[in-house]
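> @MW can you paste both from yesterday?
MW: sure, first one:
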Amino acid sequence: MNIFLFVLCLVINGGIHKVHGIQNTLKEDLELERQQQLINKPHIKSIRTKFGEIIDCIDINKQPAFDHPLLKNHKLQFAEVSLVPGLGPYYGVSGSLSVYNPKVEKDQISASTLWVQNGDANRIEFGWHRDNYKQTGCFNMQCPGFVQTHKGIYLGTRVDNTSIYGGTIVEANVSIAQDPITKSWWLSLESTTIGYFPIALFSNLTSAEQGGWGGRTHAPPGAPSPPMGSGYFPDDNLVHACYFRQVSFKNGSIQDYGPEEYHTKFGDIIDCIDINKQPAFDHPLLKNHKLQRKPNFKTSSVKNSWARLIFGLEKHQYCPTGTVPIQTITKDDLIRDKLLNSHTSTQSTPGDHFAEVSLVPGLGPYYGVSGSLSIYNPKVEKDQSSASVLWVRNEDANRIVLGWHVNPSLYGDDATHIYSRWTRDNYEKTGCFNMQCPGFVQTNKRIYLGTRVDITSIYGGRTIETNVSITQDPITKNWWLNIENTNIGYFPIALFSNMASAQQGGWGGKTHAPPGAPSPPMGSGYFPDKSFIHACYFRDVSFKNGSTQNYGPEEYHVNTETDKPSCFGVKYYGNQGRQLGYSLQFGGPGVDISVKFVIGNELKPIKYVVQTPPER
């Protein structure tokens, strides 16, 4: 069973006499031949796809659409329409749709679609109709109507790879949008316009009174209905049921947030700021700072395909050239950041715990650390936090941290966020999270500090990871942050009291809870066991020394330490071969020092409540 791109997409495959057991009359055969000749125009080039389908390259001005009697005088146009959120009447809908291949039987159909509609008669759903398909309308280009403009993507194209329940997700961004001048309705896939339905086709579709997103199935009367979407009910897990995410619509109010502001799918407001006027340059130590747009060292070009899916701005939201994304900071954000930075961050801070692998100070200096980090979403309570990070520091005062954390006090949610933190005096008077104070210079137009991670790893199941690094520029001495081999920005050397090099660097986890309160889980919430689908890990870890080369740390290069071995563990495995490289695991379930339970009528204290992994 094949799955086809877009929505109700079918390809004619058989002869004209008998299809799926249906016998045609001679008159019906002749009519089919006429339609076939009408649709199959003389071609300039013919292409056979890997699935055996024949695709003809047709003169764009002689395509089947122009045989429709309502389009005799239609003038071909090329245009793109971008969608903005608002209230309306409706002039477009869009969303990113997960693509599955549900099992359907003969004479059944299962589709996942977006659509616009006016009245009951005029409708487009990547397939269009009028009069409820009584006399007009068809799938794809099996009748004149749709005007193809793109030379690579065509309606009816087959999708090679589809999503797997609980595993790999394949998705596509799709949209239907009306041109504000010609009123034609354009179809787009992955921000690429492929063609349009001319307004003249419809009896009344100058706007849509309704639009939506969802699924449709068809079966003969009295026959079972096929599965819809992935075949599973919605359960708030985006790797289970079929989904639309980042859905939006356009309306007649022309509500416009402008090219310099976006709402993420989570409701965060991101401002696109002139790169030369970003908050970092308000720092008194950076008044004469000269912007560095890229580092003076090479960065790997290998990208993780998951990263684009799970964090950062969507492709159609990238900030314009010359601007960078900065999350809007509210007064509440500043208050929360101040409270979180009101205590220093040392290994002896009450309520703070750690499990880490650190480079031996005497073997430095160090100029960078890197590694691929698995991403989880440990459950934490209010006033708690749990982080998995790499870091560099010089003495105890100067420090840069990069990784992910769950921190409800900072963000007001229990999601996982990519974050960084810095200080020049161990957080006594300087430093902050992300960009909640001037300091970090943003250079990338997609990935920003504080971005929420959409999908995270599951113990014993799928693993989501990202490559992270902190590296000093050998010429400017600025410290660059890199996520998924993408340089997102840097901390200028002028911010620090002494960071010409790092005395120490490392990898591991940290947790925080109020003094005397329970400690939350770290990493995946499980102890290291050398199974890389269980405990949180760093793999392919490396450091950079004075030779400017990256080296995997041998066991004599590192120390391993945890301050609460009953709660958290850490294991350094050294070189584990090509797939894992120099690797380590860390984490644990945390500890509760205050829980009590009732035996009979008496409260009994529990000093420690430690979770252990289930039997496998």
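MW: second:
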Amino acid sequence: MRAVSPVRIQTLSAYPSGRFKDLVTAMRFRFPSEMRAWQIIAKVIEYSRKQRMGPFLLFFMVFMLRNVESMMNSYFATPSVALLMQKHKPKTIPPGYKAHYFPQVIDHFNHHPQGSKVFYQKYLMNKKYWHKGAPIFVYTGNEGHIDSFAQNTGFLLDIAPKFHALIVFIEHRFYGESMPFGNKSYNSVKYLGYMNTGQALADFAFLITSLKQNLSSEASPVVVFGGSHGGSLAAWFRLKYPHIAIGALASSAPILQFITPPDSFDAAVSKDYKDVSLNCYNVIRGCWDELDSYSNNTHSLLELTDTFKSCKIVGSTYYVGSWLNAAFIYTAMANYPTKANLLKPLPAYPVQEMCKIIDEYPKGASKLNRAFAAASLYYNYSGTQTCFDLEDESYIEGIRGWDWQTCTEMIIPLSSSKESMLKKYSYNYTLHAEACKRRYGVTPRPYQMTTEYGGIGIEKVLKRFGSNIIFSSGMQDPWSRGSVLKNISASIVALVTEKGAHHLDLRAATNEDPDWLIMQRKQEVEIMQKWIDEYYEDYKQA
């Protein structure tokens, strides 16, 4: 498919465009998600015969099916740092941890034969500093392989000696090695139906309870931790299972993103760059018009291939835009004050470094060229790349799982703002729902999460109901706009830092950490110490 020349594609596009659009869209969503590529192609051939299509039109349809698939994946996907971590990092267990597997029930809420079967849920454990009766710190795993989260969450290991804590990282069902139906787990909606937040939280509850019993340490207090979606899970776990966890540290937890203005994420990304340099912001904002001036013909695509140092001939301006957009978004999320390698190796304050590249670029250069130079910092800070794969569609472990979640309960509407520097886009629930229906046969439930865990007016509810939750956020992180940014009560507190980024506080401490980050972590430790002291005092009096 990739060998099709731009000339041939342009020739084929002479067919009526409306027919192509309707035909390809209808064909793509007529196939169940379980079908293999050869089955889809067979269906295309059968359909082409009925429609009396010529061979070139048939060939173009198969080509388009491949591209529609990738574009629909990007449409469904809410930016997920966790999934990109799986793609760019080796999955190795960090030193000091040992992998274990817990026999977990597939369905915690219904009693039927299939749901009563068990699967083996992976969790990591570090007992180096622990003694019986001491606290247990649990990371509530989110959308990815648990090894990656343990590698990037050094805070728990840093504070474990002070508390003599046992550290446990639990993998989320349907991710990593924790597949309820093995290699078939993503093959059918009858399996995917067991993948939801309620089941995942119940997994954590049963595993933690069983672990405490097996360790003969039922009296050990449990504090849950999580970052990003894992942070939301930690907060929800504390609300749902207060008898199991005495408190939660929810870092960069966008529990209110479901009801936050859709353009808030985009506006936050743009603000990060605009605060550094107005010129930088304007250059990135203006590069999209320059990109749109290119057409998908041979000359334009070859020119873009050269400009963006693509390893292969660029097949569409769509891929160039997506490549640029991803660089600016993920750099904002990982705008850490020290060198880091969350997704890719990046310098300290990478947004500032990107803008420095743009501002110091030779005069007379196009905005698109300057945007490319800045984006190259994200993709090639290490200097090892000789070319870029702009159409990288390599498999990201877990993408089908997150796609399912965004089609069922994790309905997070995102759109661009009026002042956005990013490529303009809008959210359309109707189109999203129709696509999910065709893809999985399900209709998204946009109010599922807010009905189960709260949303509008949550501060009034939690003020009287909840307790012992730390919501930590960094305003450099675009997801911060969907988190809790003000104290709700004396024990549900928001620790907000102006220069913090995506769950920065959960990363391991370094010698280069700024004072404000050191202070934030110190506050978190002091609050958790208070929870634990109160727990032991109450336990003695019981």
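> thanks! The first strand starts at residue 98 and ends at 105.
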